[in-house]
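Batch job 17 of 40 flagged for manual review because the log was empty.
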Amino acid sequence: MKLKGIPVTLIGKIKTGYDPFGQPIFENKSITVQNVLVAPSSSEDITNQLSLTGKKVVYTLAIPKNDSNNWTDREVIFFGKRWRTVGIPTEGIADMIPLDWNKKVMVERYE
């Protein structure tokens, strides 16, 4: 049996120009990332994040090795709902991990 993830929509921010005060202007851009594993977060992860950040994580996403998108503090869409990533993704050494995923990030429910 081979593991296979689902497509997840990542809402990325793209710099589109500058306002009259010289500050950058960003627009949201939807990026579909294929083969993302979605698993319920462990009770230990939920408790740790709640005590550290005050945010209740629900799922942990495993990100494919070939992905170069920024997953820090981003909105994601899967299962027909909006979520927000919590914290900085953790990353392993790609060559040392036998499967297709080497990063993981937790998400909280976002309305």
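Reviewer: the log was empty due to a logging misconfiguration, but the result itself is present. Strands lie at 6-18, 24-40, 57-64, 75-78, 81-91, 101-109. Unflagging and moving on to job 18.
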